[in-house]
Amino acid sequence: MPHVTLPGTYDTSLSPTGAIRNGTTFMTNHRIEDYALIGDMRTAALVCRDGSINWLCLPRFDAPAVFAGLLGTEEHGGWLLGPTSAPGLQPPDAHRRRYRGDSLILESEWDTIHGTVRITDFMPPQNGTPQLIRIVEGVTGTVPMRSDLRMRFGYGQIEPWIQTVGGRTVATAGPDSMWLDSTLAPQVTAGRTSTDFTIKAGQRIAFSLTWHPSHQGPPEVSVPEEALRATDAFWRGWSSRCTYHGPYRAAVVRSLITLKALTYAPTGGIVAAPTTSLPEDIGGVRNWDYRFTWLRDASITLSALLRTGYRDEARAWREWLLRAIAGDPDNLQIMYGIAGERSLPETHLPWLPGYEGSAPVRVGNAAAGQLQLDVYGEVVEALHLARQSGLDRHDSAHRLQLRLIETLERRWREPDEGIWEVRGPRRHFVHSKVMAWTAVDRTIQLLETGEIDGPMKRWRQLRTAIHQEVCEQGFDPNRNTFTQSYGSKELDASVLLIPQVGFLPPDGKRVIGTVEAIQRELSTPDGFLLRYPTGGPRKGVDGLPGDEGAFLACSFWLADALAMIGRIDEARRMFDNLLALRNDIGLLAEEWDPRSKRQVGNYPQAFSHLALVETARRLGDLPALPHPREAAVGVREQVVSS
Fold this sequence. Notes:
The protein is an alpha+beta fold. It is globular, with a radius of gyration of 25 Å.
């Protein structure tokens, strides 16, 4: 594996300071990985190294942003809090930052010529309305500080009415209001709320910003120090429940905390990421809204949580699933809103120029209307794992599973858009068919327990038929590899999951050939993995122009596959290199750009972190590394040689 340049050692010339594109000056003088996540399991904020918060949607993940500067300019909303800088200079970056222990409380420290100052940022998990708290603490000396708050509702389009009510600053626009509380009196000018102050060693000054419905009376004034103690206790208590104690525990716990933070507590829905339109290709059009619940991502997240001891979250997700799908599995969507909403229309926000000029900025996601047959497999696999893990029996879940297979039985031969949501023509994607097989196989296992009745013989025949068709039409015998789709010569990293789901045993020549072909043909120069070949200037299989970076989840899958075919040392090296891509506080975006050595795509990305957890668990337990039981059973019953 080639040497990997560690985050923080990159050439800053690759990321413009005061980035200018087409005459527009952006706030994005920082890379995506320069942001930290804080949240309250209802929404989340991104805090930059310089103390600015440039992304926050209120009151929930998928609501319009009140800070949208990440996708535009400072005029689109943000909150800068930090040491003052000389006129005309960029605000200084913190010299150190970290999460406090196993929590989601961010601590950032600056060393200045006047002394050292620390800012603690967090959002209390509570049953009330969302609240963002920032506590400034003097460590040494006396440091000049500045708070510059620009609230803009409607993704930066609406400037609110700002007034003082009972000594509190309130910004109102339509149904929304934001209440700023502090012991310091701010100045309000030209739509911005600013405070200049000094902080002495041992002194603590707090700011709290609370969202509240504008038609209701004012929210209660928070007690920041009490909220800090309660937030710290909550996260430490939650983290202590992790049952994984392997060699990668620190990375696993941080990823689990991130996954928990991406969970919408009122419903149990899990967003793929808390952001929209962070580009996969800087300056390009591959910009999507990920603030929704993909059945695929949520199902795999459920697997990661169950295997690390978080049964309550698994139970909540199962209830969310039953409510979202309801009694209509024939119209199963690949994604839903975080409360189970089905309508997710995709629109553009033309007043936002996009992160480093990457337009369009999208809200909503048209992929909700796609057909992706693999989702049936992921959902059924999640229900299967929940049952295996000892979650209480749920007859409605069993009935749903049978209905899903009845639908799949009718539709599995249809072409679809596949796992990567291509916007080109539908195809017979191999991964989709493999996951259809997985859904049928796990349902047969449920029938074999006697817990529920179903057409065992017919579905065994169905399982055999899917398996035979995939092996005949989705495999290239000349290159000894499974391909992206029937009749295609292209490769796709998703077929690395074939041994994981038990479709074929990992020591078979077809599996080994597939792993080796994908590693050879889809690897970037630094050894990570593309999802599939993109079209470059022309539109490829996904129907889009441009390229993208290495897909981090696929790179973790390659580490898994290498371990499963016996190349354990290589798998560990690759996993270590993937861990090195995390930023200084352990977070990952969707992709890694091998050209500019930076993270790209929506951030932080649930898919990347759940893949990290699963690979860490597998590599940390290599003596018990499975030769999948399902593979042995399925292949033996179908008399298919490997």
